[in-house]
Amino acid sequence: MAAMAPLPAASLLLFLCLLAAPCPGARAARFACNATAPRASTCQALISYAPPNGTATPTLAAVRALFQLRSHRALLAANGLPLSTPPTAPAPAPLRVRLPCLCSGGAGATFQRPTYRVRAGDTLDAIARGDFAGLVTYQDIAAANNVSDPNRVAVGQQLWIPVPCSCDPVADQPVVHFTYVVPTGTSVASIAQEFSTTEETILAVNKMPDAKALIAGQVLDVPLRACGSAISSTAIDRNLLVPNGSYVLTANNCVMCGCSSSSWQLDCQPTQGLSSSFCPAAKCGDMFLGNTSSTSSCESRTCSYAGYTNSTTFAILANVTTSNVCSAGMSPVAQPAHSLAFRLERAWLRWTELVVSLHVVLLCLGYLRQD
Question: Which of 101, 112, 97, 100 shows the shortest CA–CA distance to 60?
Fold first, then answer.
């Protein structure tokens, strides 16, 4: 029998990976998710998606289709983009994708979504590394779909892509877990700084012995601090968690809630552009939702969002909350910064006011010259 020709080094490495263990940088991730109570065992998690190097930049619509997101607005909200951003806009990289997460058997995975329909020439490894940018491994996909031979999948077969996620609190505090693929040249310290957490937290959550254990391509669980709120425990959206850098549309899209990194409290406003006949008004006495009034140089009152109900009629709840900026060692400041969408809208209003003011001044000067 003729001797077999030696395999090229790259092919040999791939062959050994497929037979034995995950390839370098494609380590299977398992996020601890021990919540068992019916409401605590499900949550909304965030996924970081960045197309592999060398591939074309996808549009927001393409990313939405890949992850089967139910609305374009949800993708904009997760990334703090203005609601006017069109689906044809190029997706920033990395992009945050909000997906439902389910805890089962001590681990968490995205619930039912995303799914992928196999095309001619596909392999599980190509789907994991290419289409889903290393968020999962071929082993994850094979196990979740009872595929006995990863090299043999049928064209047209529907596959569930079980992206790791978690719903567990961290240090008894609610957080939004962020599934993050580690880029080349990144350290635990730089990740902690970027996402406003600590090295110790990342190491503990991911059960890493030390920072040197981090490798490029690793799928990391990064817990993002969520803003506190005045939402009632009886409201439908009582479990609403919003991290800094994003906002959420709630109450049938009638309310936009961003996370303020200065106060770490939800900053909610009526969503601009929706019909008032569809969205009931939310008031606290003579104050509308989001309005603030100063009671002293240090204290202010805000009409804060308290959730929504729909048992008999659709109603948006609001309560007055009081904040004291001086007690926190801060001087009196303006209201907490809104999310990016809010800041863009306010900047436009201020620019319009400035233009109108300049126009009035020019008219007055014209009249003075005529006199």
Answer: 97
193 near 200, Cβ under 8 Å?
Answer: no
pLDDT tens, residue by residue, 340-363: 343 434 444 444 445 445 554 455
Q: Are 17 and 49 in contact (CB under 8 A)?
A: no
Q: Which residues are paired to 258 by β-bridges?
A: 247, 267
pLDDT at residue 325 in the model: 67
Phi, psi (rounded to 5 degrees) for 97: -120, 125
Across the range 253-281, mean pLDDT stands at 86
Q: Are 266 and 258 in contact (CB under 8 A)?
A: yes
- Quick one: pLDDT band at residue 260, thresholds 50, 70, 90? confident
**DSSP H/E element including 43:** strand 42-49
Identity of the amino acid at 361: V
Number of residues in the chain? 371
Cα 129 to chain center, whole Å?
A: 21
Residue 3 has pLDDT above 60, yes or no: no
Q: In the predicted model, is pLDDT for residue 25 greater than 80? A: no
Sheet holding 299-309, edge to edge: 292-294, 299-309, 315-324
pLDDT tens string 99-140: 999 998 999 999 999 999 999 999 999 999 999 999 999 999
CB 241 within 8 A of CB 43: yes
- Choose among 186, 189, 38, 166: nearest CA to 109: 166
For residue 111, what are the CA distances in angstroms to 99, 104, 214? 8, 11, 27
Rounded to whole angstroms, how far apart are CA atoms 314 and 252?
Answer: 9
Question: What six digits make up the tokens of 96?
Answer: 């945050």
Q: What is the CA radius of gyration of the chain?
A: 25
Q: How far is CA 1 from CA 5, 7, 12, 358, in A?
A: 12, 18, 22, 91
3-state secondary structure of 255: strand
